[in-house]
Design goal:
alpha+beta, BirA Bifunctional Protein, domain 2, Rossmann fold, eight-stranded mixed beta sheet, five-stranded mixed beta sheet, 15 helices, 16 strands, elongated, binds adenosine-5'-triphosphate, binds magnesium ion
Length: about 425
């Protein structure tokens, strides 16, 4: 063991568990790739101002959790704590929104960084797959994203998740509600920090997890009662479209989410097997974000699903992903000449698209067969001097246990046929 360890709040993805993460990323992105979303990749760090403005100074993400630093050249940067601001920045920079093809639909997958108190399901480095539909105000787009996330989780075999849905109103009705809520909060007995939060971002007080705070919040004005007609109609349409798709959801009037930029539709995916880190994903509409970072008005909607917590949710439900063995054929050579010949055959198999591996390190038959077993390969190809003299290799079916000689020249074809 080296003297170094993974930094606090981080962990390594190593085989065999790492394949689960690949499978989850694949499963979450598949419905997006199938629905007109194009892949986007942005840098792991950005100008710190992008997040300060885009995510919001008053959010925990910016005020407490961001890895911000100054470069040797004097630039103020931050490791990205989330994906939306970067994706929108990149879309604006490339003028994707000016090409008459709105909405611009993008998906991404990557690492995110937040200086949090590490615990199960909460890390300082974690991974998300996300989607953004930029530049259109259309309830069908909000519905599409919720339906695709539901499809992604279901395709993985997840069942015990719930979709929480709310509307946060828009720039017409939200300020009126905000003031009503603030007036209510001013009459409560809250600690100094919560009082401060009530002044900067009162909606987030609704999200407070503490029981004593929640008790005081009984009777608080509810945003639902303040939504303007346009927001109400929009929300009803989103609900109707999701319902028509057979996707179950729960109306959650207290759902506000941590980011400042959300408007109208807001939603969260929660899993009941994860304890307090129950959110496996979340998202919503962010009609004002583009203008907040200096762009034109571009109403947009998106979500981000946490890969780490999705893997934990799968484990909590006892779902075993159906992941095929990485290797189909494992070659075991006995003697130098056989090594040369079989190494060549492995290359040939690989070029024919068959997953093949080789026993390295000059092991004896017993050790090499152990490797073959461990690889999960369906077939082992074994050859020694005597086989080569006869122009054959032994093809062993690792499931049935039976072994048959196959002419060297026919090996690739025979393996292909038997794998099919
Ligand atoms: P939470 O309320 O749990 O802090 P959040 O609202 O900060 O979540 P988002 O910013 O909406 O989370 O990120 C979307 C998803 O990314 C979350 O639902 C979660 O699955 C995942 N995620 C967020 N922060 C972390 C973290 N520190 N470690 C692991 N996964 C995370
Ligand atoms: Mg958080």
């Amino acid at each position: 063991m080296s003297t170094f360890k993974a930094p606090k709040g981080t962990y390594d993805l190593i085989p065999p568990v790492s394949v689960k993460y690949l499978a989850v990323r694949e499963a979450i992105s598949a419905p997006l790739r199938n629905s007109g979303y194009g892949y986007i990749e942005t840098p792991g760090f950005e100008d710190v101002g992008l997040f300060a403005r885009g995510v919001g100074e008053s959010t925990d993400i910016v005020s407490k959790e961001m890895y911000a630093f100054e470069t040797k050249g004097g630039d103020q940067l931050a490791l990205r704590p989330e994906g939306t601001a970067s994706v929108l920045r990149a879309a604006l920079e490339a003028s994707l929104h000016k090409q008459g093809n709105l909405p611009v639909k993008l998906w991404y997958s990557g690492s995110y960084y937040r200086y949090e108190r590490p615990q199960k399901g909460r890390y300082r480095h974690f991974s998300q797959v996300g989607a953004e539909a930029i530049g259109a105000e259309d309830p069908a787009l909000d519905a599409e994203l919720i339906i695709l996330a539901d499809q992604a989780y279901r395709s993985l075999g997840l069942r015990n998740f719930r979709i929480l849905l709310n509307s946060l109103g828009d720039k017409e009705c939200r300020p009126v509600y905000r003031e009503a809520l603030q007036n209510f909060l001013r009459g409560l007995d809250l600690d100094a920090e919560t009082i401060r939060r009530a002044e900067i971002n009162p909606l987030r007080v609704l999200d407070d997890k503490r029981v004593d705070v929640q008790k005081q919040l009984v009777g608080a004005p509810m945003l639902r009662d303040y939504l303007c007609d346009a927001c109400k109609a929009y929300h009803e349409e989103v609900r109707a479209l999701i319902t028509a798709a057979g996707v179950a959801f729960e109306d959650d009037e207290k759902l506000v989410r941590g980011l400042d930029y959300y408007t109208r539709t807001t939603f969260e995916f929660v899993h009941d097997g994860l304890g307090s880190q129950s959110a496996v994903g979340g998202g919503g509409r962010y009609d004002g974000l583009s203008e907040m970072i200096g762009g034109p008005a571009l109403p947009s909607v998106g979500w981000a699903l946490g890969v780490d917590r999705t893997v934990l949710a799968l484990e909590a439900e006892g779902v075993e992903l159906d992941i095929p063995a990485a290797t189909s054929v494992f070659a075991v050579a006995l003697g130098d000449e056989a090594r040369r010949v079989l190494f060549g055959k492995v290359t040939e198999l690989r070029r024919a698209g068959i997953a093949a591996d080789f026993s390295y390190g000059g092991k004896g038959l017993k050790g090499a067969m152990k490797d073959a077993n461990r690889s999960g390969a369906r077939f082992a190809v074994v050859a020694g001097e005597r086989d080569l003299a006869e122009g054959v290799v032994q093809l062993k079916d690792m499931e049935a246990g039976e072994q048959t000689p196959v002419a060297l020249a026919d090996l690739v074809e025979v393996v292909k046929t038997r794998l099919a």
